[in-house]
Amino acid sequence: MNVETINMCRGILGKKMGMTGLFTPEGKYVPVTVVQAGPCVVTQIKTDDVDGYNALQLAFIEKKQGLVNKPGKGHFKKSGEACYKYLREFPIENPDEYKLGQEITLDLFKTGERIDVSGASKGRGFSGVIKRHGFHGGKKTHGSHSHRIPGSIGCSAWPAKVIKGKKMPGQYGNDKITIKNLEIIDIRPEDHTILIKGSLPGYRSGLISIKKRKVI
Fold first, then answer.
1. Any idea what DSSP says for residue 96?
2. CA nearest 215: which of 119, 88, 91, 115?
3. pLDDT confidence of residue 160
4. Where are the beta strands (DSSP E) in 38-138?
């Protein structure tokens, strides 16, 4: 099995704008998610000799300098005068092809290409077992005291404890979700927007990471 090497930055950061739909030339309706992707600025170049791996640190969405501490300002000053809200790393093959302050745009992608998209799912706070794990619940009749409770969670005399990993109420959502093999329907570089088929994880205006797929 040979994996084709991608000699460019494999991804870009974006902001989820919302969903809409498009009609193809054949008359088929396609639901799409609109993402404002880039431009991202290279704020650090990591090399195998110094850091143990090759990667680009990309910054996205400018931030007021008064909200950044001194170490952060010193870090951003190496690539320009602006400070940024988000920083993420993307692997590369040849760090010598990039320089600090360089902009990474949607030129990486093309219409019809398959990509992987990552984002944080919507946080739902502390949730019960019905909402969190899809439990059916108890009987909804008079005298039933188990409408939405999880039921018995323990064991008998042995091992006399709750087994680790038991499905119980707790924090639900706000997890990293990656959806693979999504299709790019359209790219509009003048607006820095990309239209991706289907839905994406997260809330509107949430951070989205778009990565190229390795060709196998």
1. G
2. 115
3. 86
4. 40-46, 55-63, 83-91, 103-104, 114-120, 126-127
List, as own/partner pairs, every contact residues 202-205 make where C-beta atoms lie below 8 angstroms and the sequence separation is at least 24, other chains included: 202/16, 202/119, 202/120, 202/121, 202/122, 202/177, 203/16, 203/122, 204/16, 204/17, 204/18, 205/15, 205/16, 205/17
**What kind of architecture, by CATH, is found in domain 11-124+170-212?**
Beta Barrel (2.40)
pLDDT tens digits, 162-182: 989 999 999 999 999 999 999
Express each pLDDT in 83-136 by its tens digit. Answer: 999 999 998 888 888 899 999 989 889 999 999 999 999 999 999 999 999 999
pLDDT at 6: 42
Cβ atoms within 10 Å, residue 199: 14
Q: What is the dihedral of CA 81, 63, 59, 178, to 10 degrees?
A: 180
pTM greater than the 0.85 cutoff: no
Domains of the chain, residue spans: 11-124+170-212
Evaluate the CA torsion angle 59, 62, 64, 67 in order and state its sign: negative
Side chain identity, residue 173: G
**In terms of Cα–Cα distance, which of 122, 62, 52 is closest to 89?**
52
132: tokens are 């969190």
